[in-house]
Specification:
The protein has 506 residues and is mainly α. Helices cover 89% and strands 0% of the residues.
């Protein structure tokens, strides 16, 4: 155990001499731990003064709360219910009737018989106006469409129809009659016709004659010879076939047909090269020459002019006339000036404002605020403590006054009610009120019987007088029973055929 623990134990033992359990601390010590001697000096006097000031206020407050609760139970709630019923009876119900019969019904009638037809008329008018606007918009759209065609379509159509198409047709006619037809004529009469004549008269005719006049009889003879000689002459026939047919045909193919085919291929290839060269010369080389010798030099000249006459002078002017002076001014003038102004302002703010403000805060404002905070905290704690103690005192005083009121007023009144007033009232009820009420009821019953007897006598006398003066009434003929209706008629009910006058009543 450390010396600090011994001192703490001694302090605890000094505080808890009143025999309270060691685990609980008094309310004053549990309020706010710490605070120093200033808190201890201020706390007790402030709590005493605040308790003296708060106790009457708390007692008056509790009395007002009790009176308010009593008034709420005994007066305000019944009065509120009565006012609510009166408001519903005199205000809400009449207003509801007025709203239903004088406002809602006229409004419904107005809506049904005035606003609905008016709305239908407005809708019809709106439909008519909408149809007119739609027609106007359609006409405007037709006019705009016609104007758009006249401005953007028809000029291009006319340009296509009357310029491009004739020019294209002229170019097509020129290409056809000046280039294609001569080329076709040249290919037909200088290549195809000679080749066809060569193939027909120098190749096909000799081959056909050879086949018809030589090969066919020879084949027939060889076939008959083979049939006659049998298998032994097969080798001789093959030799004859190879020597007389195959080798001449191979020599003819190699020495005549292949050179002719090569010549035809070379002629067609030369014609294709000539046509390709002509197409390139007519359609490619002019545009290449235009691009290479006109467009590219002009573009390079324009680019060189823009670069050397506009861009480079502007760059040079911006670099040496604007940027360089600005950089020099920023580096050698504005930067040192800004550093000096910042140092001066910083020194001024530091020693003229910051240092006095820090000293004022550290040595004046902070201690004063700390003291004011301690005082306010203790005053607030004292008010809370005093309010709670005053509540306990006010509750004890209220209970004492309630007990005194009960034994001084309530108990004697209750004893007098139970012992004097209630027995006397029951005796008066049993001996006076009930017999008197029974006598009054008997007298009323007797009077009603006498009045009924007198009324019956008067009726009989009136009937005798009427019979003596006018005679007995004739009995009506028996009528057929009426058809049953939807509503039954009770006996004794007044109808249109019965009479209730004194002179005609049976």
């Amino acid at each position: 155990m450390t010396p600090g623990d011994d001192g703490r134990r001694d302090a605890i033992s000094l505080v808890k001499d009143d025999g309270r359990p060691a685990g609980r601390e008094p309310e004053a010590e549990r309020f706010e731990p710490g605070g120093g001697c200033l808190t201890t000096v201020i706390r007790i006097p402030v709590r005493i003064v605040v308790l003296v000031l708060v106790l009457p206020v708390r007692m008056v407050w509790d009395a007002l709360v009790a009176c308010g609760r009593f008034l709420d139970r005994a007066l305000l709630r019944p009065v509120g219910r009565a006012l609510g019923w009166l408001g519903r009876t005199l205000i809400v119900t009449p207003l509801a009737w007025i709203g239903r019969n004088l406002i809602a019904a006229p409004l419904a009638w107005t809506y049904r018989h005035l606003l609905t037809p008016l709305g239908h008329a407005v809708a019809w008018l709106a439909r008519g106006v909408g149809a007119g606007l739609a027609a106007a918009i359609d006409g405007l759209s037709v006019a705009l469409r016609w104007l758009g065609k006249a401005l953007f379509v028809w000029p291009w159509v006319a340009l296509w129809r009357y310029v491009v198409v004739p020019v294209g047709r002229g170019i097509g006619w020129g290409c056809r009659n000046l280039i294609l037809l001569p080329l076709v004529w040249v290919a037909r009469y200088l290549i195809v016709v000679p080749l066809a004549w060569i193939g027909r008269y120098l190749i096909a005719a000799p081959l056909a004659w050879t086949y018809r006049r030589l090969l066919t009889p020879l084949g027939h003879g060889i076939a008959q010879l083979l049939r006659a000689s049998g298998r032994g002459a097969g080798a001789a026939a093959r030799w004859v076939w190879r020597t007389l047919v195959v080798l001449p045909l191979a020599w003819l193919y190699r020495r005549l047909l292949v050179p002719i085919g090569h010549g035809v291929v070379l002629a067609v290839r030369g014609l294709g090269v000539a046509l390709a060269w002509l197409g390139v010369a007519l359609f490619v080389w002019p545009w290449v020459a235009l691009w290479r010798y006109v467009v590219v030099p002009v573009g390079r000249g324009i680019g060189w002019g823009c670069r050397n006459l506009i861009l480079l002078p502007l760059v040079w002017a911006g670099r040496y006339l604007i940027a360089a002076p600005l950089v020099w001014m920023y580096r050698h003038v504005l930067t040192p000036l800004g550093h000096g102004i910042a140092a001066a302002v910083g020194w001024t703010v530091k020693w003229l404002f910051a240092a006095p403000a820090v000293a004022l805060w550290r040595w004046v404002v902070k201690p004063v605020c700390h003291g004011v905070a301690v005082v306010l905290r203790e005053v607030a704690g004292a008010f809370g403590h005093g309010w709670r103690i005053a509540g306990h005192v006010s509750r004890a005083v209220g209970r004492f006054l309630g007990l005194l009121f009960r034994w001084v007023f309530v108990e004697p009144f209750r004893w007098a009610w139970q012992s004097v007033v209630r027995p006397a009232a029951r005796a008066v009820r049993d001996t006076v009120w009930r017999p008197a009420a029974q006598a009054v009821r008997d007298a009323g019953r007797t009077a009603r019987l006498a009045l009924a007897t007198a009324r019956q006598t008067v009726r009989q006398t009136r009937a005798e007088i009427r019979r003596a003066l006018f005679g007995a009434p004739a009995r009506p003929a028996a009528e057929p029973p009426a058809e049953p209706s939807g509503e039954p008629v009770r006996p004794g009910t007044r109808t249109l055929g019965s009479s209730t006058t004194a002179l005609t009543k049976d």
